[in-house]
Design goal:
Blueprint (H helix, E strand, L loop, with lengths): L7 E6 L6 H12 L2 E4 H14 L7 H9 L3 E3 L8 E3 L2 E2 L7 H11 L5 H19 L1 E6 L2 H5 L5 E6 L2 H13 L4 H18 L13 E4 L5 H16 L8
Parallel strand pairs: 1-6, 1-7, 2-6, 7-8
Antiparallel strand pairs: 3-4, 4-5
Helix pairs in contact: 1-9, 2-4, 4-8, 7-8
The structure holds adenosine-5'-diphosphate and deoxycytidine diphosphate (YYY).
Adenosine-5'-diphosphate binds next to helix 1, helix 7 and helix 9.
């Protein structure tokens, strides 16, 4: 298979607020391939455990819930929908309450191999359906899909990440809003770093620093890496 005909698997990792989800969705849309938000799977499992009153500190019980998680996740980058046991939790899994708890689930080492295998299976199914996939998270370039055709680490300064998340969640990037965002960005990254390496690019992984790029420039920078590594051009003009 030549690089042009090889399935277009793109793995993107990075810390909170680096732009992984929004940039990955736009890149998948421009390339006409599917999208997998692996963080949404950790969030959906957290929601499911809270809903069923499973103690997040009970590692074995959370792992059993992970193996049985009745999750439906859309692959369409323009219409993301997360459904657990028939309940649409697309918005709720982004709530501050779930953001505050999700690292307890993501750092459970009995849970990770279960979700990582589910993510590999999902990547294969999306690739079979659309010819490729953009999968993003914390360990996609290193553990879930180290053989992906294109592997990228999206980074941004702490300041830029706090400002972005603050504007997104609180509609403002003033001092108070930023202070209220620190837990969901910095504390969570610190906790999540215990189980994944997503601040330094692994061998063969290309770093794209978006600190001084706006959103559209970030999308173009990622598409340029895809074109240089895989020889794929995007299908639409911006
Ligand atoms: N390069 C960028 N410049 C400015 N804002 C950005 C950029 N990339 C993403 N954003 C915005 O920052 C917020 C967080 O981005 P998101 O994609 O959710 O990050 P992550 O998935 O890495 O946590 C979103 O509101 C998004 O639109
Ligand atoms: N592959 C992944 C994806 C996410 N996680 C963890 C890290 C985060 O705390 C949660 C939620 O991830 P998500 O990507 O939604 O978080 P952000 O949008 O970057 O704030 O899951 C992980 O450990 N491994």
């Amino acid at each position: 298979m030549t690089r042009e005909t090889e399935p277009l698997t793109i793995a993107i990792d990075g810390p909170s607020g680096s732009g992984k989800s929004s940039v990955s969705k736009a890149v998948a849309g421009r390339l006409g391939i599917g999208y997998l938000d692996t963080g949404a799977m950790y969030r959906a499992l957290t929601w499911w455990c809270v809903d069923r009153a499973i103690d997040l500190g009970d590692h074995a019980a959370v792992a059993i819930a992970a193996a049985d998680l009745p999750l439906e996740l859309s692959a369409d980058p323009e219409a993301q929908r997360v459904v657990v046991a028939g309940t649409d939790v697309t918005a709720e899994i982004r709530s501050t309450a779930i953001s505050a708890e999700v690292s307890k689930v993501a750092t459970n080492t009995a849970v990770r191999p279960i979700l990582q295998q589910a993510q590999r299976d999902r990547m294969a199914a999306i690739t079979a359906e659309t010819g490729g996939v953009v999968a993003e998270g914390r360990d996609i370039t290193t553990v879930v899909a180290p053989d992906a055709l294109v592997r990228l680490l999206l980074t941004a300064s702490e300041d830029a990440r706090l400002r972005r998340r603050s504007a997104e969640v609180h509609g403002s990037a003033d001092e108070h809003a930023i202070a209220a965002t620190r837990d969901q960005v910095l504390r969570r990254d610190r906790d999540d770093s215990a189980v994944s390496q997503f601040t330094v690019a692994a061998d063969g992984v290309v770093t794209v620093d978006t600190s001084d790029l706006d959103f559209d420039e970030s999308v173009e920078a990622v598409l340029a890496v895809v074109a240089s590594v895989a020889g794929h051009a995007s299908t639409d003009a911006p």
